[in-house]
Amino acid sequence: MTGLNLSQIKRLWIRPALQAIGLDDPAHVNIVTGIGLVESGYVWLEQLHGGPARGFWQMEPASHDDIWKNSLPAPCRSKIASGLNRLLYGQPHSADLMIALPLYGAGMCAVKVLLAPEPIPAADDAAGQARYHKRWYNSPLGAASVMANISDFQAAITA
Question: Taking a C-beta distance cutoff of 8 angstroms, is the pair 153, 132 a contact?
Fold first, then answer.
């Protein structure tokens, strides 16, 4: 990896973002760190070749908007929605803000992970996190490769 330091990404963006929404356990911190590493290498803020994905975690606007419309209004999610709103610094939620506000992007990634119907793998399970990312975040149609991404999830775990 070139550019941003992965340990600083975890400390300065991911942990504070996940603390704001109450998901700052080691498994969530590591999987969100790994997803950003796999999806963008913490280099690309917009999807290459004109795709719609935004931010280091490469979430598509349709996924972003669906989370806000269909998943966050539930009363049990009010703490998460409140935390995400704090990460927006008073701005209305918008997929484009995942580019400008990395903490918001990390928080949205964590929420997408949380909404998957299967619990996330253990904090130290790089292979499990790579499989989980492919199945529940990248999707079977995405370009991610479980085997190729295990080393990125391991780097996220050890950062």
Answer: no
Dihedral of CA 90/96/98/102: which sign? negative
Ranked by mean pLDDT, the top range of 47-51, 78-82, 119-123 is 119-123
The 10 Å CB-count burial string (b at 16+, else e) for 75-108 is eebeebbebbbebbeeeebbbebbeebbbbbbbb
Label residue 73 by pLDDT band (50, 70, 90).
low
> Rounded CA gap, 98 and 158, in Å?
25
| pTM assigned to the model | 0.93
3-class SS shares of the chain: helix, strand, coil, % to 5: 65, 0, 35
What does the alpha-carbon distance between residue 143 and residue 47 come to, in Å, rounded to a whole number? Answer: 12
Query: Helices 102-115 and 26-40 meet at what angle, rounded to 10?
Result: 110
Query: Can you read off the two tokens belonging to residue 59?
Result: 């979430």
